[in-house]
Amino acid sequence: MRHIAPKRSRTHQSRIKATAKALPRQRQDRDWLLLFASFIALFLLMTLTSMASPLVTPQWLSDNLEKKEIRILDLQPAQGYQRAHLQGAVNTNYGAWRKTDAEGRPKMLPEISYLEAMIGTLGISNDSHVILAPLGINASEIAVATRIYWTFKALGHDNVSILDGGLIAYSQLKGAKFTIVPAEPTPQTFKAKPRPEYFPSGQQVLAAWEKGMTMVDSRSTKEYTGTIAAPGERAGTIPSAINLPFDRLVGKGQGAKFFSKEESTALFKEHNVPVSGPQISFCHTGHRTSLSWFVAHELLGNKQAKMYDGSMVEWAKDKQYPVKLPK
Hints:
The protein is α/β, with parallel strands linked by helices. It has 11 helices and 9 strands. Strands 1-5-4-2-3 form a 5-stranded parallel beta sheet. Helix 5 (about 140-155) links the parallel strand 4 and strand 5.
Protein backbone atom coordinates (compact mmCIF):
# COMPACT_ATOMS: atom_id res chain seq x y z
CA MET A 1 0.00 0.00 0.00
CA ARG A 2 1.35 3.39 -0.96
CA HIS A 3 2.05 5.71 1.98
CA ILE A 4 0.34 9.04 1.69
CA ALA A 5 1.90 11.88 3.68
CA PRO A 6 -0.57 13.89 5.67
CA LYS A 7 -1.31 17.34 4.38
CA ARG A 8 0.06 20.17 6.41
CA SER A 9 -2.09 23.16 7.15
CA ARG A 10 -1.27 26.52 5.66
CA THR A 11 -0.72 27.83 9.19
CA HIS A 12 1.91 25.17 9.84
CA GLN A 13 3.60 25.88 6.53
CA SER A 14 3.69 29.59 7.37
CA ARG A 15 5.38 28.83 10.67
CA ILE A 16 8.02 26.73 8.93
CA LYS A 17 8.73 29.53 6.46
CA ALA A 18 8.89 32.11 9.23
CA THR A 19 11.30 29.94 11.19
CA ALA A 20 13.49 29.48 8.12
CA LYS A 21 13.60 33.23 7.57
CA ALA A 22 14.43 33.85 11.26
CA LEU A 23 17.41 31.51 11.32
CA PRO A 24 19.80 33.84 9.42
CA ARG A 25 18.70 36.73 11.65
CA GLN A 26 19.38 34.65 14.76
CA ARG A 27 22.82 33.73 13.45
CA GLN A 28 23.45 37.41 12.72
CA ASP A 29 22.37 38.38 16.24
CA ARG A 30 24.63 35.68 17.68
CA ASP A 31 27.56 36.92 15.60
CA TRP A 32 26.97 40.48 16.81
CA LEU A 33 26.87 39.29 20.42
CA LEU A 34 30.17 37.44 19.96
CA LEU A 35 31.71 40.51 18.33
CA PHE A 36 30.47 42.75 21.16
CA ALA A 37 31.80 40.34 23.81
CA SER A 38 35.18 40.28 22.04
CA PHE A 39 35.25 44.08 21.99
CA ILE A 40 34.52 44.27 25.74
CA ALA A 41 37.25 41.70 26.47
CA LEU A 42 39.74 43.65 24.37
CA PHE A 43 38.79 46.90 26.10
CA LEU A 44 39.27 45.36 29.54
CA LEU A 45 42.61 43.91 28.47
CA MET A 46 43.79 47.31 27.19
CA THR A 47 42.63 48.97 30.41
CA LEU A 48 44.47 46.49 32.59
CA THR A 49 47.57 46.79 30.42
CA SER A 50 47.60 50.61 30.73
CA MET A 51 47.42 50.39 34.52
CA ALA A 52 50.84 49.18 35.58
CA SER A 53 51.55 47.52 38.90
CA PRO A 54 52.49 50.13 41.56
CA LEU A 55 55.66 48.17 42.38
CA VAL A 56 58.00 46.16 40.20
CA THR A 57 60.69 43.84 41.50
CA PRO A 58 64.35 44.08 40.48
CA GLN A 59 63.98 40.76 38.64
CA TRP A 60 60.98 42.04 36.67
CA LEU A 61 62.91 45.14 35.63
CA SER A 62 65.91 43.05 34.61
CA ASP A 63 63.66 40.85 32.46
CA ASN A 64 61.94 43.84 30.81
CA LEU A 65 64.83 46.28 30.57
CA GLU A 66 65.02 46.13 26.77
CA LYS A 67 61.33 46.80 26.07
CA LYS A 68 60.91 49.97 24.05
CA GLU A 69 58.00 51.31 26.12
CA ILE A 70 60.05 51.23 29.34
CA ARG A 71 61.45 54.59 30.47
CA ILE A 72 63.48 54.51 33.69
CA LEU A 73 63.80 57.69 35.71
CA ASP A 74 66.91 57.58 37.89
CA LEU A 75 66.23 59.51 41.11
CA GLN A 76 69.77 59.66 42.44
CA PRO A 77 71.57 62.96 42.88
CA ALA A 78 73.47 63.86 39.71
CA GLN A 79 76.80 62.74 41.21
CA GLY A 80 75.43 59.28 41.95
CA TYR A 81 74.04 58.96 38.44
CA GLN A 82 77.46 59.80 37.01
CA ARG A 83 79.06 57.03 39.07
CA ALA A 84 76.60 54.29 38.05
CA HIS A 85 73.08 53.86 36.71
CA LEU A 86 70.92 51.42 34.76
CA GLN A 87 71.34 51.31 31.01
CA GLY A 88 68.91 53.73 29.35
CA ALA A 89 67.96 55.40 32.64
CA VAL A 90 67.49 59.17 32.56
CA ASN A 91 68.46 61.21 35.61
CA THR A 92 65.94 63.77 36.85
CA ASN A 93 66.27 66.51 39.46
CA TYR A 94 63.63 66.15 42.18
CA GLY A 95 63.52 69.90 42.68
CA ALA A 96 62.14 70.29 39.16
CA TRP A 97 59.02 68.37 40.18
CA ARG A 98 58.04 70.84 42.95
CA LYS A 99 57.93 74.61 42.64
CA THR A 100 56.90 77.68 44.61
CA ASP A 101 53.47 78.63 43.30
CA ALA A 102 52.01 82.05 42.49
CA GLU A 103 50.81 82.46 46.09
CA GLY A 104 54.27 81.85 47.52
CA ARG A 105 53.66 78.30 48.76
CA PRO A 106 56.87 76.29 48.39
CA LYS A 107 57.37 72.85 46.86
CA MET A 108 53.93 72.61 45.27
CA LEU A 109 52.76 70.75 42.18
CA PRO A 110 53.92 72.98 39.27
CA GLU A 111 51.82 74.26 36.38
CA ILE A 112 50.51 71.49 34.12
CA SER A 113 52.05 72.98 30.96
CA TYR A 114 55.46 73.11 32.66
CA LEU A 115 55.22 69.46 33.71
CA GLU A 116 54.10 68.36 30.25
CA ALA A 117 57.14 70.00 28.65
CA MET A 118 59.58 68.69 31.27
CA ILE A 119 58.26 65.14 31.11
CA GLY A 120 58.51 65.21 27.32
CA THR A 121 62.18 66.22 27.47
CA LEU A 122 62.84 63.11 29.60
CA GLY A 123 61.79 60.98 26.64
CA ILE A 124 58.40 60.11 28.12
CA SER A 125 55.22 59.98 26.03
CA ASN A 126 51.70 58.94 26.96
CA ASP A 127 52.60 55.42 25.78
CA SER A 128 55.60 55.08 28.10
CA HIS A 129 55.73 52.77 31.09
CA VAL A 130 57.63 54.89 33.59
CA ILE A 131 59.80 53.10 36.15
CA LEU A 132 60.89 55.27 39.08
CA ALA A 133 64.23 54.12 40.47
CA PRO A 134 65.29 55.58 43.83
CA LEU A 135 68.56 54.51 45.38
CA GLY A 136 66.69 52.75 48.21
CA ILE A 137 68.54 54.20 51.21
CA ASN A 138 65.67 55.18 53.53
CA ALA A 139 62.04 56.26 53.69
CA SER A 140 62.71 59.91 52.86
CA GLU A 141 64.65 59.00 49.73
CA ILE A 142 62.00 56.48 48.69
CA ALA A 143 59.41 59.24 49.17
CA VAL A 144 61.05 61.03 46.22
CA ALA A 145 59.73 58.15 44.11
CA THR A 146 56.24 58.17 45.68
CA ARG A 147 55.93 61.94 45.23
CA ILE A 148 56.80 61.75 41.51
CA TYR A 149 54.53 58.69 41.22
CA TRP A 150 51.67 60.75 42.71
CA THR A 151 52.46 63.52 40.22
CA PHE A 152 52.08 61.16 37.27
CA LYS A 153 48.79 59.89 38.68
CA ALA A 154 47.58 63.47 39.21
CA LEU A 155 48.40 64.12 35.53
CA GLY A 156 46.30 61.14 34.47
CA HIS A 157 49.20 58.82 33.59
CA ASP A 158 48.57 55.40 35.17
CA ASN A 159 51.40 53.52 33.47
CA VAL A 160 53.95 54.18 36.20
CA SER A 161 55.70 51.92 38.74
CA ILE A 162 58.32 52.15 41.49
CA LEU A 163 61.34 49.82 41.65
CA ASP A 164 60.81 48.14 45.02
CA GLY A 165 64.02 48.27 47.04
CA GLY A 166 65.54 50.73 44.59
CA LEU A 167 68.89 50.44 42.84
CA ILE A 168 70.47 48.86 45.93
CA ALA A 169 68.07 45.91 45.72
CA TYR A 170 68.66 45.73 41.95
CA SER A 171 72.44 45.58 42.50
CA GLN A 172 71.95 42.37 44.50
CA LEU A 173 70.69 40.49 41.43
CA LYS A 174 73.06 37.96 39.98
CA GLY A 175 74.54 39.54 36.87
CA ALA A 176 73.19 43.02 37.61
CA LYS A 177 74.72 45.50 35.19
CA PHE A 178 75.25 49.24 35.48
CA THR A 179 76.79 51.82 33.18
CA ILE A 180 78.38 55.26 33.40
CA VAL A 181 77.25 56.30 29.92
CA PRO A 182 74.52 58.97 30.27
CA ALA A 183 71.30 58.38 28.38
CA GLU A 184 70.30 60.87 25.69
CA PRO A 185 66.53 60.62 25.42
CA THR A 186 64.67 61.69 22.32
CA PRO A 187 62.13 64.38 23.29
CA GLN A 188 58.54 63.17 23.21
CA THR A 189 55.09 64.70 23.42
CA PHE A 190 53.36 64.16 26.74
CA LYS A 191 49.79 65.38 27.17
CA ALA A 192 48.34 65.45 30.67
CA LYS A 193 44.76 64.61 31.64
CA PRO A 194 44.70 66.31 35.07
CA ARG A 195 42.73 64.82 37.94
CA PRO A 196 41.91 67.76 40.26
CA GLU A 197 40.68 65.39 42.95
CA TYR A 198 44.31 64.35 43.48
CA PHE A 199 45.39 67.79 44.71
CA PRO A 200 42.74 69.32 47.01
CA SER A 201 43.25 72.93 48.05
CA GLY A 202 43.49 74.14 51.64
CA GLN A 203 39.85 75.28 51.49
CA GLN A 204 38.74 71.87 50.25
CA VAL A 205 40.69 70.15 53.02
CA LEU A 206 39.11 72.51 55.57
CA ALA A 207 35.62 71.71 54.24
CA ALA A 208 36.36 67.99 54.43
CA TRP A 209 37.70 68.33 58.00
CA GLU A 210 34.57 70.25 59.06
CA LYS A 211 32.51 67.31 57.80
CA GLY A 212 34.49 64.92 59.96
CA MET A 213 36.81 63.35 57.40
CA THR A 214 39.74 61.37 58.80
CA MET A 215 43.02 63.32 58.77
CA VAL A 216 46.34 61.47 58.90
CA ASP A 217 49.51 63.29 60.00
CA SER A 218 52.52 61.63 58.33
CA ARG A 219 55.11 63.71 60.22
CA SER A 220 57.27 62.64 63.13
CA THR A 221 55.76 62.30 66.59
CA LYS A 222 57.64 65.41 67.77
CA GLU A 223 56.14 67.51 64.98
CA TYR A 224 52.70 66.05 65.63
CA THR A 225 52.80 66.86 69.34
CA GLY A 226 54.22 70.33 68.76
CA THR A 227 57.56 69.63 70.42
CA ILE A 228 59.18 71.04 67.30
CA ALA A 229 57.78 73.36 64.64
CA ALA A 230 59.11 75.13 61.56
CA PRO A 231 59.93 78.86 61.93
CA GLY A 232 56.87 81.06 61.55
CA GLU A 233 54.44 78.17 61.85
CA ARG A 234 52.06 77.31 64.65
CA ALA A 235 53.02 74.16 66.57
CA GLY A 236 50.70 71.19 66.58
CA THR A 237 48.52 69.44 64.05
CA ILE A 238 45.10 69.56 62.41
CA PRO A 239 42.61 68.91 65.23
CA SER A 240 41.59 65.22 65.53
CA ALA A 241 44.35 64.12 63.12
CA ILE A 242 45.84 60.66 63.67
CA ASN A 243 49.62 60.31 63.67
CA LEU A 244 51.26 57.60 61.54
CA PRO A 245 54.88 58.58 60.81
CA PHE A 246 55.68 57.86 57.19
CA ASP A 247 59.03 56.19 57.89
CA ARG A 248 57.29 53.27 59.60
CA LEU A 249 55.72 52.20 56.30
CA VAL A 250 58.86 50.78 54.65
CA GLY A 251 61.58 48.43 55.83
CA LYS A 252 64.76 49.66 57.45
CA GLY A 253 68.26 49.49 56.00
CA GLN A 254 69.79 49.53 52.54
CA GLY A 255 67.53 48.41 49.72
CA ALA A 256 64.47 48.92 51.92
CA LYS A 257 61.26 47.53 50.48
CA PHE A 258 57.58 48.14 51.10
CA PHE A 259 55.78 45.79 53.44
CA SER A 260 53.21 43.24 52.33
CA LYS A 261 49.55 44.20 52.26
CA GLU A 262 48.95 42.25 55.45
CA GLU A 263 51.84 43.94 57.27
CA SER A 264 50.78 47.41 56.10
CA THR A 265 47.19 46.75 57.18
CA ALA A 266 48.44 45.75 60.63
CA LEU A 267 50.49 48.96 60.89
CA PHE A 268 47.49 51.11 59.98
CA LYS A 269 45.31 49.35 62.52
CA GLU A 270 48.02 49.63 65.19
CA HIS A 271 47.93 53.42 64.74
CA ASN A 272 44.09 53.54 64.50
CA VAL A 273 44.18 54.64 60.86
CA PRO A 274 41.32 53.21 58.76
CA VAL A 275 42.36 51.12 55.76
CA SER A 276 39.26 52.15 53.82
CA GLY A 277 37.00 55.17 53.46
CA PRO A 278 37.64 58.88 52.89
CA GLN A 279 40.84 60.26 54.42
CA ILE A 280 43.39 62.99 53.74
CA SER A 281 47.04 62.65 54.74
CA PHE A 282 49.50 65.53 55.13
CA CYS A 283 53.02 66.30 56.33
CA HIS A 284 55.00 69.53 56.07
CA THR A 285 55.43 70.05 52.31
CA GLY A 286 53.69 67.09 50.67
CA HIS A 287 56.86 65.00 50.38
CA ARG A 288 56.69 62.50 53.24
CA THR A 289 52.95 62.07 53.06
CA SER A 290 53.20 60.95 49.44
CA LEU A 291 54.64 57.70 50.81
CA SER A 292 51.69 57.37 53.21
CA TRP A 293 49.28 58.07 50.34
CA PHE A 294 51.03 55.51 48.15
CA VAL A 295 50.63 52.76 50.74
CA ALA A 296 46.98 53.63 51.45
CA HIS A 297 45.81 54.36 47.90
CA GLU A 298 47.97 52.07 45.78
CA LEU A 299 49.03 49.13 47.96
CA LEU A 300 46.00 48.84 50.26
CA GLY A 301 43.59 49.86 47.50
CA ASN A 302 41.81 52.67 49.35
CA LYS A 303 40.85 54.81 46.35
CA GLN A 304 39.22 57.35 48.68
CA ALA A 305 42.57 58.26 50.25
CA LYS A 306 43.97 61.66 49.25
CA MET A 307 47.02 63.73 50.15
CA TYR A 308 47.22 67.44 50.84
CA ASP A 309 49.95 69.00 48.70
CA GLY A 310 50.07 72.27 50.68
CA SER A 311 50.26 70.40 53.99
CA MET A 312 51.39 72.22 57.15
CA VAL A 313 53.62 74.70 55.33
CA GLU A 314 50.37 76.26 54.13
CA TRP A 315 47.99 75.23 56.92
CA ALA A 316 50.06 76.25 59.96
CA LYS A 317 50.85 79.71 58.60
CA ASP A 318 47.27 80.68 57.75
CA LYS A 319 45.18 81.42 60.84
CA GLN A 320 41.92 80.61 59.07
CA TYR A 321 42.98 76.96 59.39
CA PRO A 322 42.75 75.40 62.91
CA VAL A 323 45.83 73.96 64.60
CA LYS A 324 45.83 72.18 67.94
CA LEU A 325 48.23 70.40 70.25
CA PRO A 326 46.97 66.80 70.62
CA LYS A 327 46.13 65.54 74.10
